[in-house]
Amino acid sequence: MHANYKAYDFEKSRNRIDEILDSSDNNYEDKKEIPNRDNLTFTNGYYIFCSAIFIDMRGSKEFSKKHTRPVTAKIYRSYISELVAVLNGNTRLREIYIEGDCVWGVFNSPKKSDIDSIFNTAAQAASIIDTLNIKLKKKKYSEIKVGIACHDADVLMIKAGYSGSGINEVTWIGKLVGETADLCSKANRSNSKRTLYSKTFYDNLTDDNKKKIDWLNWNSTYTCYEGNTVNVAMNNWVQQNG
Asked: Which InterPro entries match (predicted)?
């Protein structure tokens, strides 16, 4: 969020707090799909069961020490640019965020077929990292390592910020974001594969898709499914050019 200076007014601050705290609990509705963000005010919100994908870099602090600042900037820009492109290519994506070296998105997923499409998007995200690493290797730059996580859960969608300033953002409160971020932090470690899928996410896949991906493993340490999942078409390019 871009800052825009306004002198702080303590009296107005107290009034804003009262307006928020005195708003009706009935302003928070249950929805099957993520509503348009324009429907949000500073006094309402929506409960939704939806999905998220998180992609987070591993060892980023050490990574940035290995290159000059311009090279580091180019690598990060390439990494973020193409992960955003992959997530944005799913029609069910509703919100996307960039936080440091983590890129994550929230998806509408009322149908099992939606979960299948999100699974495929996570596979594309893994493959674009493999693609980027081939190009980095040819430049003699360090390759990137990421963890990926997919999850479904309840979430509260609200508009948070400073009313009247133009400084605001859609904020997600509840299990979805926290649990997906936690799962992502465990992905691609010494005892896990690159992509982790919560049991809820896996259970919500279509039966046909479960049959196709019967090679996924159950990770008893983290009570989730795991795999080094890739997109077949993209992986063909990786194999031919690696």
From this structure: Nucleotide_cyclase
Which residue blocks in 105-204 are alpha helix, DSSP H?
Answer: 112-138, 175-186, 199-203
Token digits of residue 239: 């194999």
Question: In the numeric block, which tokens belong to residue 146?
Answer: 């990421």
To the nearest 10 degrees (0 to 180), the angle between helices 112-138 and 232-241 is: 10
pLDDT for 165 equals 80
| Domain residue ranges of the chain, discontinuous segments joined by + | 24-233
Quick one: pLDDT at residue 2? Answer: 78
According to DSSP, the residues that pair with 150 across neighbouring strands are 53, 197
Q: Is 147 exposed, middle or buried (0-12, 13-18, 19+ CB in 10 A)?
A: buried
- List pLDDT tens digits, range 118-153: 999 999 999 999 999 999 999 999 999 999 999 999
- CATH number of 24-233, picked from 3.20.20.70, 1.10.10.10, 3.30.70.1230, 3.40.50.150: 3.30.70.1230
Q: Give pLDDT < 50 ranges for the chain.
A: none
Q: What is the pLDDT of residue 68?
A: 87
CB 129 within 8 A of CB 144: yes
Q: How far is CA 219 from the centre of its chain?
A: 21
